[in-house]
């Protein structure tokens, strides 16, 4: 070999490969994006489209090769490029402007050969820097999660797609963009509202930001200072707190979930006289109820404001207590027995309510909960006859700001109570949980904690005592 040939070979060997174009990441168009999809290949493509504008290459793995996908995930993160899955990532490769691929595993290698895609053996790409994007996933090992990491996003695996159940880390301050990968996260609007709640760190009595499942409430029912209206009225506020705590403790040995003490506080009392406003309901003031609400909060006791509206409507009465309902530990109960028509009087007729009136309250209460970034709030509706809620099958349980409970509050001998319970479950609305009431004087005998939680098909999540 001549000296010239040696020099030419050395020069060629020293010539570096042409540099690959820089990867360009995309900023999500919205502050919260949900990329829903059960198909891993489609979800990986959607994640690439949401987080990358262009890339000189992509890592490939076969959709039916989990081992290759795991290896490919690390390679994609190292290079800072998307991880795509066969059977056909061609459209996304073209959109990215990828000039080559890094196939991992025999399936991806075969696809690259069949598709005529250039295979890059040792590409050099500068990975994008970290940025203010949080990607939530229930599967941290998914190809979509690998693509999100490669884009510079922070990826966090969540045990539940509802961030109120177990708030993700790093929500304070809220990231500029959140991208949810996969199903179960709800709409972007729903997820955004849930993230607002999770970011507050505010919890319910007993912990967490979602009521049920995960806890059971045991409550004293009544009106302060009036023993005839229930056991809550038989003692002062401090003694009522202690009594509610002791009652909840009786249920803990037989409950499969934690038991939280509660007050069901009658806030508007159906009255035999019309009163100054003519509605046959005596409304307690916020100032009168506040000491009970405050003491309950300090003791970890949940409070349910119970309405007996007489001839008033439930929404008008509920709005009187917006200031109290804006507290995280305060929910609402509607008692249709005391919702009367013109000409009717308390204790002379069993009242009824239209489902539209109940739904109007649900909408207002859900909006209040959302607007104040509050944990999930209880909305309970009492019933011991099917006729008490007209068109009950249309009960709106779609707002996940609320946990809707139908509360069976009939009294009598065990057989009668169970018959009422069974009748109320016929044609029950979708999405409701159930409550049960025990009466110290009217039940003969009163159910024990174990007997109460054996009623089925699902035990009550709310048990009150009158």
Q: Structural class of the helices, strands and pairings?
A: alpha/beta
Number of beta strands:
20
In terms of DSSP E residues, the strand content is 15-25%
- As an assembly, this protein is single chain
Biggest sheet, spatial arrangement of strands: 10-11-13-14-16-18-19-20
Looking at this protein, list some descriptive labels:
single chain, 466 residues, alpha/beta, eight-stranded parallel beta barrel, four-stranded parallel sheet, disordered N terminus
Description:
With 466 residues, the protein is α/β, with parallel strands linked by helices. 32% of the residues lie in helices and 21% in strands. The protein has helices spanning 3-14, 40-51, 66-79, 90-96, 106-115, 143-150, 188-200, 237-251, 286-299, 314-320, 322-325, 355-371, 414-425, 449-452, and strands at residues 24-25, 32-35, 52-54, 57-62, 83-86, 100-103, 133-137, 154-157, 177-181, 216-222, 259-270, 281-283, 302-307, 330-334, 353-354, 377-383, 389-390, 402-408, 433-438, 462-465. The strands form 5 sheets. The chain has an 8-stranded parallel β-barrel, surrounded by 5 helices. Strand 19 (433-438), helix 14 (449-452) and strand 20 form a beta-alpha-beta unit. Helix 2 packs parallel to helix 6 (143-150) and helix 3 runs parallel beside helix 6 (143-150). The radius of gyration is 30 Å and the shape is elongated. The termini are far apart. Mean pLDDT is 92; it is low at 3-16.
Quick rundown:
The chain has 466 residues and is of the alpha/beta class. It has helices at residues 3-14, 40-51, 66-79, 90-96, 106-115, 143-150, 188-200, 237-251, 286-299, 314-320, 322-325, 355-371, 414-425, 449-452, and strands at 24-25, 32-35, 52-54, 57-62, 83-86, 100-103, 133-137, 154-157, 177-181, 216-222, 259-270, 281-283, 302-307, 330-334, 353-354, 377-383, 389-390, 402-408, 433-438, 462-465.
């Amino acid at each position: 070999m001549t000296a010239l040939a040696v020099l030419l070979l050395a020069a060629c060997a020293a010539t570096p490969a042409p540099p690959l174009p820089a990867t360009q990441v995309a900023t999500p168009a919205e502050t919260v994006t949900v990329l829903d999809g059960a198909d891993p290949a489609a979800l990986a493509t959607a994640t690439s489209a949401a987080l990358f504008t262009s890339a000189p290459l992509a890592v490939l793995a076969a959709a039916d090769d989990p081992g290759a996908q795991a290896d490919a995930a690390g390679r994609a993160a190292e290079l800072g490029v998307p991880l795509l899955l066969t059977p056909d990532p061609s459209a996304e490769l073209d959109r990215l402007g990828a000039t080559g691929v890094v196939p991992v595993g025999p399936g991806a290698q075969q696809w690259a050969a069949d598709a005529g895609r250039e295979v890059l053996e040792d590409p050099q790409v500068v990975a994008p820097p970290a940025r203010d994007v949080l990607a939530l996933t229930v599967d941290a090992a998914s190809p979509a999660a690998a693509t999100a990491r490669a884009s510079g996003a922070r990826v966090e695996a969540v045990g539940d797609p509802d961030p109120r159940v177990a708030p993700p880390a790093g929500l304070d301050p809220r990231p500029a963009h959140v991208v949810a990968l996969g199903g179960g996260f709800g709409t972007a609007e729903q997820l955004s509202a849930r993230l607002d709640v999770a970011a507050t760190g505010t919890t319910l009595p007993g912990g967490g930001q979602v009521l049920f499942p995960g806890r059971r409430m045991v409550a004293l029912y009544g009106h302060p200072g009036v023993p005839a209206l229930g056991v809550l009225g038989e003692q002062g506020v401090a003694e009522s707190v202690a009594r509610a705590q002791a009652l909840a403790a009786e249920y803990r040995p037989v409950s499969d979930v934690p038991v939280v003490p509660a007050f069901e506080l009658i806030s508007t009392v159906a009255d035999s006289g019309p009163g100054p406003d003519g509605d046959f309901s005596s409304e307690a003031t916020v100032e009168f109820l506040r000491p009970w609400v405050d003491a309950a909060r300090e003791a970890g006791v949940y409070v349910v404001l119970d309405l007996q509206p007489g001839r008033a409507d439930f929404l008008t009465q509920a709005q009187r207590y917006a200031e109290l309902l804006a507290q995280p530990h305060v929910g609402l109960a509607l008692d249709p027995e005391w919702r009367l028509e013109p000409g009717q009087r308390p204790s002379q007729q069993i009242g009824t309510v239209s489902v539209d009136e109940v739904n109007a309250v649900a909408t207002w209460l859900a909006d209040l909960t959302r607007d104040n970034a509050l944990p999930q709030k209880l909305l309970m509706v009492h019933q011991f006859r099917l006729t008490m809620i007209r068109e009950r099958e249309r009960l709106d349980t779609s707002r996940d700001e609320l946990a809707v409970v139908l509360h069976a509050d009939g009294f009598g001998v065990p057989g009668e109570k169970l018959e009422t319970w069974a009748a109320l479950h016929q044609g029950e609305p979708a999405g409701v949980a159930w409550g049960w009431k025990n009466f110290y004087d009217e039940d003969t005998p009163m159910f024990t904690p174990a007997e109460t939680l054996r009623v089925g098909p699902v035990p009550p999540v709310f048990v009150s005592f009158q």
